Predict the 3D structure of the following.
Amino acid sequence: MNRWLLWLPLVLFGLFFGAVAIGLMMPKDNIIESKMVGKEMPAFALPAAIDQRPALTSADLSGGKPTLLNIFASWCVPCIAEAPQLLALQRAGVEINGIASRDTPEDIANFLNRWGNPYTRIGTDTTSKVQLELGSSGVPETFVIDGNGVIVHQHIGDIREEDVAKLIELLEEAG
Amino acid sequence: MKRLLCLLLMISFVTPIAAQTGLPPAPYADRQLEDPRQEAMASELMEELRCLKCQSQSIADSNAPMAGDMRSQVRERIAAGETPGEVRSWLIERYGNWVSYDPPIASAVTWPLWIAPIVLLLTALWLARGRFRKPGEGE
């Protein structure tokens, strides 16, 4: 047997050890990005979530102007954190449509009264059907949609102050 | 007896603490399909689909509301005549191979996972081949 072959098991073990060590050191990545980015918005029609805003269909998202589609819920705490940013985007002239995930009309109305209502239309997705169509895996999530109804970007998690400028930039690029 | 009665009373008035959402689960989240053959196909598929919320569980195992919604979607699609393969690719199209516990062999990321055990086993056999020889032979 060749001398160097004696070292092979140790080398293999070293490689294995290294792989495991790297796996342990690296922070766990729980984010699942939607594969729908770059594709056309799947067809859907959701009933209105509250009386004050009209219902939402996929046709509303290809009106020639880039829009934001925000998935939120009254039971979602990060959604409260991103509310001021959504209002700022609305003040900047951005059209934001909402999808309320697994929610009741009363809870949605209370939530919007308390934290502000930046939405043009709100659809209610009581069984996550449209969320699954979009490849979305939680709330809040925000999709940037160009004027032709193509998804150009997915923002996972709450929109922080520093994200607002980037979203406006993406909307302008999509226009 | 009195104590037992008291305990029973207490238990019967317990209400579950607020769940994540106030809504009831989707229609087919926890209800089987009427056709046993379709239900068997659906539940087999549900064992192999990953929950988006609790990522180490299948949607069949998970109690997350979103897993319930996924189970309902799977059952509704199977009931509408889709094959399990079609439902799986519908989800893979949206979430990537990640969502399936049965990843394809041909993908650039997954083929080492399928090949590695075979390579390791062959390497081990090759390393151990000297051990299987009768003493006195070779070397």
